[in-house]
Amino acid sequence: MRAMVLNKIVSLEENRQPLILVDMPIPEPKPDEVLIKISVCGVCHTELDEIEGRTAPAQFPIILGHQVVGTIVKLGGETSKFKIDERVGVAWIFSACGKCKFCLDGNENLCDDFLATGRDVNGGYAEYMCVSEKYAYKIPDVFTDAEAAPLLCAGAIGYRSLKLAQLKNGQNLGLTGFGASAHLVLKMVNYRYPETKVYVFARKEKERAFANELGAFWTGNSTAVSPHKLDCIIDTTPAWKPIVHALYNLEKGGRLVINAIRKENADKEYLKALSYRSHLWLEKEIKSVANVTGKDVENFLKLAAKSGIKPEVELYPLEEANKALLELKNKKIRGGKVLRIS
Ligand SMILES: [Zn+2]
Ligand SMILES: [Zn+2]
């Protein structure tokens, strides 16, 4: 099979072709796994973190990609959830131990043995992959393969962030950063919290225009002072700077949810600007989001199908994965980027 593999950690400033096209054997499913013939795979900011080593793959070479859609072509001997030819998706969660207190509480995203698709095991930048049937999800018919891909990460993590934000209908919500995840959160909020006003903080004029198109109440650049204090803010930027501004814009007792899995180090110094009085005083909370659970993915897919939430997507052939990644790095974003594989 064709696969785009990463052989080592590199800096994208120095190496603009980090992934190499190779020919590999098709993997064999274990007894609890299914073999998927991949149709599309979404491109996520986490791939940049893997390539540059902010979250390092467990071994090399590794096939990245954790927003996988395809059809089942082979069933492991102990599976029963799916049939051949069924269309399924795979997300960031590849497996967890199933026995620890976090797993038993339905928080397998916090499991010490959490394995991530496309980081700890081979993912979806390839023609085939295997996954346990437990962590494969039926894709609702209303979505095309390409539309479904960004739902599996950007959408599911957006869903989890919104859940952790504990937003109530009518409260003001801020979104710092406006990429694949935030634009789906805005669509979800329009549907679930129709009285809520959404304030979007984004660096690029194009992103702000996109947010306005999707019904944002107000948009400003990432360092803007919000015209009103915000009850919840969800941060999806890879930077530290927006955190400082978000805390300033946060209402008393408000909650900031930091969704980006890993922050780039460059502007960490900026955190020194945090002042107790303007940013932290008056019971402001900070909560981080880690990974997703199987339930988050399942629930979000159902919600998205019911409410007509569809992501905007840009397609690239598998061989142009490096181009898609560099554009993501350079913030050339409108919705989600997706690789077309077959
Ligand atoms: Zn992702
Ligand atoms: Zn566990």
Can you offer a commentary on this structure?
The mean pLDDT is 94. Helix 3 (145-165) crosses helix 4 (180-192) and helix 3 (145-165) crosses helix 8 (294-307). Strand 15 (250-258), helix 7 (276-280) and strand 16 form a beta-alpha-beta unit. By secondary structure, the protein is an alpha/beta fold. The protein starts with a strand and ends with a strand. The chain is 27% helix and 25% strand. It has helices spanning 45-52, 101-104, 145-165, 180-192, 205-213, 241-249, 276-280, 294-307, 321-329; strands spanning 2-6, 19-23, 33-43, 62-63, 68-75, 87-90, 93-95, 115-116, 128-132, 137-138, 173-176, 198-201, 218-220, 230-235, 250-258, 285-288, 313-317, 336-340. It folds into two domains: 2-139 and 312-340, Quinone Oxidoreductase, Chain A, domain 1, CATH 3.90.180.10; 156-288, Rossmann fold. One zinc ion binds at residues 44, 46, 66, 92, 153. The site of one zinc ion has 5 residues, from loops.
